Amino acid sequence: MIETAKRENIVFTMATKFRYCEDVVKAKAIIASGMLGDIILFENAFTAKVDMSKRWNSDKKIAGGGVLIDNGTHSVDIIRYFLGAITDVLAVETSRTQNISVDENVKLLARTEKGVVASVDLTWGINKELPALYLGLWHERNAPYRLARIEV
After folding, report:
1. pLDDT digits (tens, 9 = 90+) for 66-86
2. Is the Cβ–Cβ distance between 67 and 47 less than 8 Å?
3. Contact 132, 45 (CB under 8 A)
4. What topology does CATH give the domain 16-146?
5. Are the C-beta atoms of 133 and 147 separated by less than 8 Å?
6. Which among 74, 88, 80 has a CA at the least distance from the CA of 16?
7. What is the pLDDT of residues 104-123, one digit of tens each?
8. Are 109 and 52 in contact (CB under 8 A)?
C-alpha cells in the first residue's frame, strides 16, 4: 500500500480521531505549556461492556485482531502525541468474558524515550468506572491531571 501511494503520489496516513477532540487538544496545550512540569505517569482507558458477538471486528478471520487493534491504535497515538516516541511495550490479554475469537481485554504498558510509563486498559468486556473520561496524567507537581469532557 505504501509503495502504491508513493507511485500514485497519494498521501497515505493512519486516520486518528482523538488528536482532534477538543479535550485532547486542550490537554496537549497544557502539557506543551510546561505548567505541569515533567509528566511521570500516563493512563488511558477505553473500556465499555459491548456485545461483540455479531460485530465484524470480533471475527479473527476478518479483523485479524480485537480490542488491541480497534482501540489500542488510538491509545498509542495519544501517548506519542503527548509524550513522544515509544521505546518499550508490553501487552497482556486478560480473561475473556465473551465467546469471540479475538482479544477482548488487554492491559498495555509502554515506556517513552523520556522514561514516562503509560498504562492502558482496553476492553469490550468490562464496564470500568473511571474517575475521568479516558486520560490521566501524573506529573512532578504531584497532582493528577484528569481529562474530563469539556461541555460546550
Report:
1. 999 999 999 999 999 999 999
2. no
3. no
4. Dihydrodipicolinate Reductase; domain 2 (3.30.360)
5. yes
6. 74
7. 999 999 999 999 999 999 99
8. no
